[in-house]
Task: inverse folding
């Protein structure tokens, strides 16, 4: 119908999942908020572990035997993860809520009107970027904290020692899952404030609230809370009150999948 | 080509669009006219599949928008509401959209030059003026060389140079054989660019006709006449199909006769004429005549309760 002659590139025009992934990668790395949040997460992961290591190293000789026995080098190495999950979670929400607050979502949906490829691409890109940045960060946190407590014999750990690798990789996996979980919450809430507050409520606020419940209730519920289950994969806590590392993490991945599926259904059904 | 059949959209209790049936043809600029709140933006969102129709269908080039393999190649849209992430540069915004369809980078660069954004392409969109934002929106709309172009109030907030640029662009796109569908609440703007008009009010179709036809139908043709012998002239020309009213300044306003007929009638009786001016109603007046009954929010009439969302049975 067109009077002008179509240029050759037009023959290949078509929306595909890999192309939507490429588009989402461009969107992610071209925002300042992404770079800052990721930098903060890396700094917190490494810096906080180093800080814990310094504090422990400094106070070690003044600790009683019982307190010394309660120090675990993996707790020190992975302490930063518990804080950097906030930065990752906020960024996960923003990856999608930022599109709603600015109106970008209309351009996005107009380009990919089937919608679901956008959600899958966002989740895949964000998970990959988070894991690729946070795994080195957690490894660095491990070695940094080990270097600082090197003079304290009971705190020395070998990277290849029992459960060390699982804890270190687990820390990065946990942050990755947290990011996708937060992204799904952002997609469900469709606004930044709602997404972040539901994320903070689920991960940070609800767990301590359980203390108010009778303890047998608390013990029955607590291991199954998303944050408790997910962090089992890098926790050194074992025994009652906790699931096994991979069972706990598996449950958290299940929660994340459920949140993402809910987001997918809503994305297809709702008006933009 | 856009085809809407019985298109209806209900938001809660409000029926934004009701039973719209129309066709937008390729090769011409079609104006989509209606007062603010008439349902123009809703209709455009329904065409793009951003919102789902409550009932009825709308297709673009034969298929619902979301079923096309390369939607941006079928329809390029500039929506009224901003639809760009303010934290991203214009260049990256266009690249991200281009990547979804496999549009090459060279095309993005070509469009950045074409809309005149070269110097600010690497700057964050948040700092753009309204005009720059519109240019970026146009670039995004044309990215995949669409066969149909939809623009929602494209000249809103633009300076005269920008308005001229948009007008020329629309005509150019139509001359290339594309379907061009442009909304506006200003009749005068449509008269400058559009050949065909689809007029809606309160979500319903009011008129679907050529601009020429619209002007002929809607305008009230009167002739202003001033004469020292006004009263006698009036006697001479008044008749069953001719009405003559006295304007505030003493002139006669004659409808039902052309200026020529009045002039000849005056000459037969040797009346002196000081003025003989055919007057057409302005475009805005014509538009208001057509949409008068369909404006969503009237100034409240006396005794009438506020009832903005009345749905006609």
Result:
């Amino acid at each position: 119908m067109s009077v002008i002659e179509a240029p050759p590139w037009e023959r290949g025009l078509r929306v595909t999942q890999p192309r939507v992934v490429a588009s989402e990668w461009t969107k992610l790395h071209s925002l300042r908020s992404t770079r800052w949040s990721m930098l903060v997460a890396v700094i917190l992961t490494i810096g906080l572990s180093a800080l814990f290591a310094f504090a422990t190293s400094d106070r070690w000789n003044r600790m009683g035997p019982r307190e010394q026995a309660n120090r675990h080098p993996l707790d020190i190495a992975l302490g930063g993860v518990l804080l950097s999950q906030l930065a990752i979670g906020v960024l996960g929400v923003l990856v999608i809520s930022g599109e709603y607050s600015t109106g970008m979502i209309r351009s996005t949906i107009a380009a990919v009107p089937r919608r679901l490829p956008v959600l899958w691409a966002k989740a895949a890109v964000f998970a990959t970027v988070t894991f690729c940045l946070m795994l080195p960060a957690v490894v660095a946190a491990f070695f940094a904290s080990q270097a600082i407590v090197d003079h304290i014999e009971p705190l020395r750990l070998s990277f290849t020692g029992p459960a060390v690798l699982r804890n270190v990789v687990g820390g990065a996996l946990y942050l990755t899952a947290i990011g996708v979980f937060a992204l799904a919450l952002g997609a469900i809430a469709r606004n930044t404030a709602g997404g972040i507050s539901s994320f903070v409520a689920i991960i940070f606020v609800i767990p301590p609230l359980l203390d108010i419940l009778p303890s047998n209730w608390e013990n029955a519920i607590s291991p199954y809370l998303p944050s408790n289950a997910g962090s089992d994969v890098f926790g050194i806590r074992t025994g009652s009150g906790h699931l096994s590392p991979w069972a706990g993490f598996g449950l958290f991945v299940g929660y994340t999948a459920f949140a993402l599926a809910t987001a997918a259904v809503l994305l297809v059904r709702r008006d933009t | 080509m856009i085809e809407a059949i019985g298109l209806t959209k209900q938001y809660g209790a409000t029926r934004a669009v009701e039973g719209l049936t129309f066709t937008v043809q390729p090769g011409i600029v079609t104006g989509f006219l209606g007062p603010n709140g008439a349902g123009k933006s809703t209709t455009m969102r329904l065409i793009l599949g951003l919102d789902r129709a409550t009932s009825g269908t709308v297709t673009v080039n034969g298929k619902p928008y979301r079923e096309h393999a390369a939607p941006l190649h079928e329809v390029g849209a500039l929506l009224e509401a901003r639809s760009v992430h303010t934290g991203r540069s214009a260049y990256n915004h266009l690249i991200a959209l281009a990547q979804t369809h496999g549009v090459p980078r060279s095309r993005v660069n070509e469009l950045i030059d074409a809309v005149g954004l070269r110097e600010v392409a690497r700057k964050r969109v948040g700092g753009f003026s309204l005009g720059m934002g519109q240019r970026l929106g146009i670039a995004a709309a044309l990215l995949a060389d669409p066969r149909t172009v939809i623009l929602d109030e494209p000249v809103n907030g633009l300076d005269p140079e920008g308005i001229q640029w948009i007008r020329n662009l629309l005509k150019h796109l139509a001359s290339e054989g594309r379907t061009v569908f442009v909304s506006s609440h200003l009749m005068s703007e449509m008269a400058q660019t559009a050949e065909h008009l689809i007029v809606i009010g309160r979500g319903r179709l009011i008129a679907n006709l050529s601009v020429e036809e619209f002007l002929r139908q809607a305008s009230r043709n009167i002739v202003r006449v001033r004469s020292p012998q006004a009263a006698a002239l009036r006697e001479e020309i008044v008749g069953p199909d001719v009405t003559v009213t006295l304007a505030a300044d003493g002139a006669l306003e004659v409808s039902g006769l052309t200026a020529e007929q009045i002039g000849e009638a005056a000459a037969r009786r040797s009346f002196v004429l000081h003025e003989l001016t055919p007057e057409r109603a302005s475009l805005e007046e014509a538009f208001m005549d057509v949409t008068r009954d369909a404006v969503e929010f009237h100034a409240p009439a006396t005794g009438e309760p506020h009832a903005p969302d009345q749905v006609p049975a």
Q: What stands out?
A: The interface with chain B takes residues 1-4, 6-7, 9-10, 12-16, 19-20, 22-24, 26-27, 30-33, 98-99, 102-107, 109-114, 271-272 of chain A (CB under 8 Å). Residues 17-269 of chain A form one domain. Chain A has a mean pLDDT of 92. Residues 116-148 of chain A form the longest helix (33 residues).
